[in-house]
Amino acid sequence: MEDLQSALKERNLTISTIAEKGRCLFATGDFYPGEVIISQEPYVCVPNNSGFDSRCDGCFLSSNLKKCSGCQVVWYCGSECQKSDWNLHRLECKILSRLDKDKRKSVTPSIRLMIKLYLRRKLQSEKVIPSTATDNYSLVEALVAHISDIDEKQLVLYAQMANLVKLILQWPEIKIKELAENFSKFACNAHTICDGELRPLGTGLYPVISIINHSCLPNSVLVFEGRSAVVRAVQHIAKGTEVMISYIETAGSTMTRQKALKEQYLFTCTCPRCIKVGQYDDIRESAILEGYRCKDEKCDGFLLRTSDDKGFECQQCGLLRDKEEIKKFATELKLLEDRALRPSPIANHQETISMYKMIERLQRKLFHPFSIALMQTREKVLKLLMELEDWRDALVYCKLTIPVYERVYLGFHPLLGLQYYSCGKLEWFLGETGEAIKWLSKAVDVLRITHGTNTPFMKDLLMNLEEARVEASYKRSSKDE
Ligand SMILES: [Zn+2]
Ligand SMILES: [Zn+2]
Ligand SMILES: [Zn+2]
Ligand SMILES: [Zn+2]
Known about the structure:
Blueprint: H1 2-9, E1 13-18, E2 22-27, E3 36-40, E4 44-47, E5 66-67, E6 75-76, H2 79-84, H3 86-97, H4 101-105, H5 109-125, H6 137-141, H7 152-169, H8 176-189, E7 191-194, E8 200-205, E9 213-214, E10 220-225, E11 228-233, E12 244-245, H9 254-265, H10 280-290, E13 303-305, E14 311-314, E15 320-322, H11 323-341, H12 349-366, H13 372-387, H14 391-408, H15 414-429, H16 433-451, H17 456-480
Parallel strand pairs: 9-12
Antiparallel strand pairs: 1-2, 3-11, 4-8, 5-6, 7-8, 10-11, 13-14, 14-15
Bound molecules: zinc ion (ZN) (4 copies).
């Protein structure tokens, strides 16, 4: 701990323990938007490999993969990644190799993460792998497990997983109880490793990053550069302020956010957004994000339940929506959504798209224009249209999501920047250079703060913008001639 504090001191950071919150990371100097506060390599990590989708264990890329010839479980993109991982995989490979085919299938990413955790601990204690102030097992030991808050069913599941790990490792000295507690630690502390566009690639344990607490209105953001976790300031963080990131999707009413935090992270959030629960502003915001729309198509008022519980009243124009009418819509919507989710071997892409477009039309009549559900459906249609390379239609849906994104992802939020980026790319594909420049510039304004400017992803974005500018000036000059 002392070592860790002095390592953090050099970075203008310190850990303090606060009674109700536990450990907190505080800034001991000022940080400005875009500045890296802290970065860390994972203690252990695994790619989210499944039967269909595999990634290199070293770099998480998915091209040129070859299976490790020893265990036939782990993939590598080349000898460089294999070599850098060899100290640990040498042991893991032996363990995996002695399993029969069926048992090997039970080695899911979370089971592997646990196996790697124990192997790394062993190798560090034997000094095969060096330990440092920010890279040692005692940091893992210090993580919260919330074991007393976990329900019975989950505990049983952890115990089963613990048994499997014990069976695979065949180390008589490890205790099931400790293993189960470590699974609970993973659930509360492990991070999903994403690429620059926030698509999930794997899972990693970053015990120093895990000290950073949650806020629904965070002053920092966590992104990944390859496997390293990087925390950047998205606001000015004055000396003495606690550094905070968001653990969850922050778009959503206070109730939705609190539920997500309670379920996965087992705590009640008391951030500046959450303490407003029950106040007029918070009720209004919830009704906008998750409530119904006014009967008058031109009115954007929000609706609240009437005191006699017969329906919902627009708080702007006073129009009433009958409970039965809403119920009818909701039933119809549920039917459509169930149909869309049911896997059908004959449904093609086009049919799936028209199904979601139908859902979107229905949601537009039911929900407030800033509804999260409506935004998510549009997002779904957008993704499907992109896969079909229908750029024109995709752009329509992308633009429809922007006002909601700007409302729910305030300030420098990576999701907002990425949505601007999508609009820019689509305009570019359609040959609308001027519009492409407008959107790409907006994307750069946000993403250079959240992502920095040095990653391959950001270099691509900056190059796209540069290309668009060159093309625009070429178009202008050829018009002048
Ligand atoms: Zn690799
Ligand atoms: Zn192997
Ligand atoms: Zn909160
Ligand atoms: Zn109204």
